[in-house]
Amino acid sequence: MFPYKQTDTINIYMKNLIILLIFGCIIDVCGQAQNPKTEISVLEAGLRQVHGKQKIESYNRLAELYLNVFNQKSIQYARAALDSIRKYRLDVDQLIKANLYSTIGAAYYNIKEYKMSAEYFDKEYELIKDMAGDENVFLSLFNLGTIYNKLNSNKKSVKYYLRSLSLAEKANKGDLVLQNYQALYEVYEAINDHENSLRYYKLYNNLRDSLLITEAKKEITILKSKYSVALKQKKEKEIELRGKEQQLTVAEIKKQKLEQDSAINAQKIALLNEINRYNQMEIQLREIKIKKEQEIVRSQRRVIYLLVVLFTVIFLFSVLLYREYRAKKRAVAQMKSDKTIIDRHNEESRIKNMKIEQQNLELLELNSVKDRFFSIIAHDLRNPFNQIIGLSELIISKYENYDEKQINEMIAEIYKTSVHTYRLLENLLEWSRSQSGNIIFNPEKLPLAALVNEQIAALHTQGSIKSIELIHDIQNNILVYADKNMLNTILRNLITNAIKFSHPGGIVHISAERTAQHLKISVADQGIGINEENLKRLFTLDSNFSTKGTAGEKGTGLGLILCREFTARHGGEISVTSIEGQGSTFTCKLPYPIQE
User: Among the CATH numbers 1.10.10.920, 3.40.50.300, 1.20.1340.10, 1.25.40.10, which is that of 33-230?
Assistant: First the structure.
């Protein structure tokens, strides 16, 4: 329980009593002012008759009375007082408001609502913290320390106890210092801080003994003072008696002497009793001191035993940890060794699997290429010959049945088919040689414009059939470092492909662009273009992928395959950009390591 602040009980009681007497309530005041039940009844009966600050004082006193009997109405009345202060904006002493907060905090403490208790004691402290030297400040801090101790918030508890102790020491409040010492050594003991606990226990015992000795000395001083007064009175009596001896008879003198001696003896006996009591107090103090020393010795022994046990446990635990660490270290080393072996085996297996997978992919690709190659031979190469043979047979056997125009058309068809078949056969041979590695790579400086002119001349007839114009704007001084046969194959296939997919009357444009490291050769047409899905399949021998030209020309895709492989042989790359319905541009980018 906390130490609480007191208010002027009698003044409040008398104010309410006068009001009740005015209304005819006759109460026997004597003996009732100290009766809490009577005082509560009087105050509650007079609440309706008082206003302003008097009502606040009544609420405050009722809250304190109910708090003393552990009744929760103390919270109700304290809050009613605070509400009235706020509602009517009453100018009351801060100590009254602080006392109301303290009362509510104590009431919540009684019912173990420690968080609510802390909240109201905090409010009390905020109101009075600047009142330097006021005992209520020390008590408020001490109360907060006690509450936070109950809440197991030991750091906060120690903080408030230390602040309360500091202020109490400055104000020389021995009893409050003693309470803080006791609280601190109990808190430190609870959190196993034995060093601080022992320190404050020693301070507590020393101060307690000091206070007891101080009290004993005060009592001895009082006894000595009484003894001196008694001696003085005795001397005064003797002087008075000597002055009266002449007026008294011998018998009366003896009688008075006896009475005086009897009184003096009684005083001596009383003084002896007081001295005996003092001696008993000294004996008790010595016993207390002996007990304190014995308790300190026992505490020191307990600490020593505890330290021995603690060090033994720590040593054994350290040994176990070290053995566990060694075992784990060996296990980890073994696991790392095993993991290294497993990882190496896994890596070897992964590499083997990758090689096998790569070989499988290559075999699948070779198998697909083989199937496509035989498909070209079986269909794309055989069908044109059937067409040539059929048309030739018609001209030979039924020449007289056709007019000159029809015969010229059949001859033109034979020519077109023959050229297409020748180009296909040429590409097949070139591709076959490239696959078998029989093509000799012999790069040299070549005039690009001359090579392009040769291919335009060779493909002029094929282009003129569809009225397609073949043009270029390549300057004569541009050189290319390439294998002549391979570059001719690349140019021929790209231009042929452009003619195939160009509309009649269109233009095929060949251009070149030189950069610091490369020479870009582009062949652009204004044909049908290529959709995004087919762009991904252009440079593969896909047996299911074949697109007819604008005049129904068939294709195999073999020409573009050769372009890609021959470009790669030069260390270059081929790319295509196309807009469906507007045309395509194929670009062959070759390294340009020479200077003109």
Answer: 1.25.40.10
